[in-house]
Amino acid sequence: MGEVKSSRREKSEATRRKILRAAHEEFGEKGYHGATIASIAKRAGVAGQTVYFVFHTKSALISAVIDSLVMGEEEPTIPQESPWWRAMAAEPDAATALGHFVRGAGPLFERASTISEILRGAALTDDEVRRTHEFHEDLRRTGFREVVVMLAEKAPLRTGLTVDTATDILLTVYGDTTYFIMTKERGWSHDQYLDWLCEALPTLLLEP
């Protein structure tokens, strides 16, 4: 009986991953409103009803796509449990710790920024999508605020900055929109953008 349950669970997870990959491709190619549950199901090789059964709504599906891009597909891991987060926490020098954060979070932005921008655009015209977008923004703000609090325990923040204003700066300079603009529209490479952040953020956030 245990083997049967395990087999069913593995099949269910495999179906879920197929749908997520198909949705990622459809949203990336057609945008939120252009992608349909029917087209996602066809690309995944499943029935449309299966997509609804697993994810219920299209906004929940794009939310799950972003989660999988941020945390990984096979063994989902929140940033706070990643090796680079632990390295940041253990590093006594604030600027070096900030570098751990920038380079550790970099692959997450590389994977998720395009879909996050698609979600942001769709949120302007759809209340349900707006709530999904706000949910992810709240998660990101919470995580970035944790980073700023950690930095402030290692070194003083720049004069005039509070934890909240420093979080605002970090969210803006190292956000999905800024990453997308710099790497997709302005032509910076991923590494070039991260190198610049490692130089600029200590000056923006920390007391000289």
Give an overview of the whole structure.
With 208 residues, the protein is an all-alpha fold. The chain has two domains: 56 residues, Arc Repressor Mutant, subunit A; 129 residues, Tetracycline Repressor, domain 2 (Orthogonal Bundle). Helices cover 80% and strands 0% of the residues. It contains ten helices and no strands. Helix 6 crosses helix 9. The mean pLDDT is 94.
Descriptors:
mainly alpha; Arc Repressor Mutant, subunit A; 80% helix
State the gist of this model.
This protein has 208 residues and is mainly alpha-helical.
List strands and helices in order, with pairings.
Layout lengths: L1 H33 L2 H8 L3 H8 L2 H14 L11 H8 L3 H30 L3 H28 L8 H11 L2 H10 L4 H16 L3
Helix pairs in contact: 1-2, 1-4, 1-6, 2-3, 4-6, 5-6, 6-7, 6-9, 6-10, 7-8, 8-10
Mean pLDDT: 94
| CATH architecture label of the largest domain | Orthogonal Bundle
So what's the overall shape? elongated
Fraction of residues in β-strands: under 5%
- Count of beta strands: 0
Biggest sheet statistics: none
Low-confidence stretches: none
**CATH topology assignment of the largest domain:** Tetracycline Repressor, domain 2
* Count of DSSP H/I helices: 10
Computed over alpha carbons, the radius of gyration is 19 Å
